[in-house]
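[Discussion] Sanity-checking designs against the backbone

I'm trying to build intuition for which residues belong where. Below is a structure token string of 224 positions. I'd appreciate it if someone posts a full sequence so I can compare it with mine line by line.
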């Protein structure tokens, strides 16, 4: 899908005090290894989702709604709705997943620090559908100060002209010109990044320190 806006960034959207409330909530929850997959139904145990270390290396905590601060939830929802309108997406949604508190660490004993390579948060409806529909909107909140880590860049793909060379008979695809990196200012603590869940994105390896963030997914009916 070709979009006018693939990603909306609101710097300093949350105050440092609000970020501390998110950390306090996460401190109540057990940390587990990061997993990949689509365990999105409330009846499914997120701990059973597949661990694929060539795709993702990180840890996470699931912040369930009954422990999550309502004022923070309401502010995320306001940001999601504002970004959906500003981005021209205007996606209908009807359900919010439990939030994922993600932790990316420097790992000197491994080939790289923690990362999450190119992926989307969505999939085909047959794989992704829950009783609430599919993931429509995704967001991430910056919970670390930029000086706390190096690397860990949030990047996304804007593929509008990626395949233009096919019309010229060239079948090689160079993705580098279409990769967008969130600006350094977006690493400010409390920054909110919102994007359609089908947008390809990644977090590059952390080379020093620890990067934490809060990821949210908003579900809605399949596209018509």
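Best answer:
Here's mine. Compare freely.
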């Amino acid at each position: 899908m070709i979009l006018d806006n693939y990603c909306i960034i609101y710097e300093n959207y949350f105050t440092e005090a609000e970020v501390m409330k998110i950390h306090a909530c996460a401190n109540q929850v057990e940390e587990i290894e990061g997993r990949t997959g689509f365990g999105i139904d409330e009846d499914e145990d997120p701990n059973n989702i597949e661990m694929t270390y060539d795709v993702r290396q990180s840890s996470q905590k699931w912040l369930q709604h009954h422990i999550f601060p309502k004022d923070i939830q309401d502010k995320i929802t306001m940001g999601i709705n504002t970004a959906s309108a500003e981005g021209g997406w205007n996606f209908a949604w009807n359900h919010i997943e439990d939030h994922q508190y993600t932790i990316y660490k420097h790992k000197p004993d491994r080939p790289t620090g923690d990362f999450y390579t190119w992926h989307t948060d969505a999939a085909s409806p047959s794989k992704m559908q829950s009783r609430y529909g599919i993931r429509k909107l995704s967001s991430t909140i910056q919970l670390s100060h930029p000086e706390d880590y190096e690397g860990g860049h949030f990047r996304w793909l804007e593929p509008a002209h990626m395949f233009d060379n096919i019309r010229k008979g060239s079948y090689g695809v160079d993705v580098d010109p279409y990769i967008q990196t969130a600006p350094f200012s977006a690493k400010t603590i409390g920054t909110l990044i919102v994007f359609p869940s089908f947008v390809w994105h990644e977090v590059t390896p952390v080379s020093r320190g620890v990067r934490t963030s809060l990821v949210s997914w908003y579900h809605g009916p399949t596209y018509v």
